[in-house]
Structures are given as C-alpha cells and as structure tokens.
Amino acid sequence: MQSYEKLLLENKAWASEKVTDDPEYFNRLAHIQTPEFLWIGCSDSRVPANEITGTQPGEIFVHRNIANMVVNTDVNLLSVLDYAVTHLKVKHVIVCGHYGCGGVKAAATQNDFKAVLNMWLRNIKDVYRLHREELESIKDEERRTDRLVELNVREQVNNLAKTSIIQRAWKEKNAPDLHGWVYGLKDGLIKPVFEMKAGTHIDPLYEYDDL
C-alpha cells in the first residue's frame, strides 16, 4: 500500500466513526460555518490548530504559512483575513508561532535559501533587525531563537493592526481582539505573549483616518 492510500483509508474510518457517534454531524457542518476564531499559524506539520486547541471542525478558521507571517503584500493572507473578519465576523484573530520554528532559525542565519525563500525570510530578518540589541544580548543560541519566535509573533500582530481590514472592523464593530501566542513543541502548551484589544491605537502613521 502506498503512503497516500493509507490517508484515504484513515479518512474513511474517521468519517464512519463520526457518523456512528452523531448521524447529523456532517449535515450540520455542510450548512453552517460560524467560527469565533481566525488562526494564523505556521505550516509546520507538528502544529495542527484544531488538535492543540481541542476545537472541532467549524469552530476555528485557519490560515497557515511558513513562520506564521502577516505580510502586507500577501494577497492570500489578506483575503483570508478579510473573509474571516468581514463575513464570518470572528471575534478573535490569533497569530500562533512555535518554539523551534525552522523558518525563524533560517532567517537568523546568513545562508542563501534561493530566491523565493529568501524573499519570505527577509520579513523575519527585519524583525531581528528591529530587536537586534535585545536578541544579541542573549548568549544562548536556543534561548535567542525562542525570543525571536516571540518577537516575530508580536510584530505579526502589529502588522494585523496596520491593515485597513482590522481598523475598519474596529471602527464598525469594536472587534476582533488580536492575540499573539507561541506553542511549545516540547510540552504541548500555548504561551500567550502579546495582545491587542480592539481599538488599540498604534503609530499614527499606520492609522487610517477616512475609513
């Protein structure tokens, strides 16, 4: 049996188990989606949003990319954000990074990862540059990388607040709140590291006054 065929078999077993436990399970999911949360997480296969938060399908709207980035030219991310905030009306947007993130580790090096990855990792290098003094005062490499993971999450939450999507929602609905979390691969626990309540003022240069 090929490895991908095992996935299909597991899917059939999972679907059968769900229907046995609750005959209306898939019928309900097919007709409604009302998640309270948008999760912006890392693509790392060890950080599945539903599993580590104990949520069921339909309860959390998920977008994942390398190192859980909020890049202002990323149309994919922005379209997910707009849909979640404007149409699904989520109450919370969570940026969740994780300790041991390969993308963050790579960005802290001077290695050439070729064109596309270099462009993406440049956004994390900018976070390092902004916090260089603090980071380079940490002598232990693992602790320094862990701190960069936390600071990266914080900067991505700030990037959310800079979007007109979030600012318009704050003005019209006083929601969503923004949260920065970091997941620990070694213990399975989520650590909150940053939060912005709806309506929080940021640098006026990034605030829109004609929404």
Automatic annotation (TrEMBL):
SUPFAM superfamilies assigned: beta-carbonic anhydrase, cab
SMART domains: Pro_CA
PROSITE patterns in UniProt: PROK_CO2_ANHYDRASE_1
EC number: 4.2.1.1
Details of cofactor binding: Binds 1 zinc ion per subunit.
Binding of Zn(2+), residues: 42, 44, 98, 101
GO biological process per UniProt: carbon utilization
Keyword set, alphabetical order: Lyase, Metal-binding, Zinc
InterPro entries listed in its UniProt record: Carbonic_anhydrase (IPR001765), Carbonic_anhydrase_CS (IPR015892), Carbonic_anhydrase_sf (IPR036874)
Cofactor: Zn(2+)
GO molecular function, one term: carbonate dehydratase activity
A Pfam family per the record: Pro_CA
PANTHER family: CARBONIC ANHYDRASE
Protein family: Belongs to the beta-class carbonic anhydrase family.
Protein name: Carbonic anhydrase 2
The organism of origin for this protein: Niastella vici
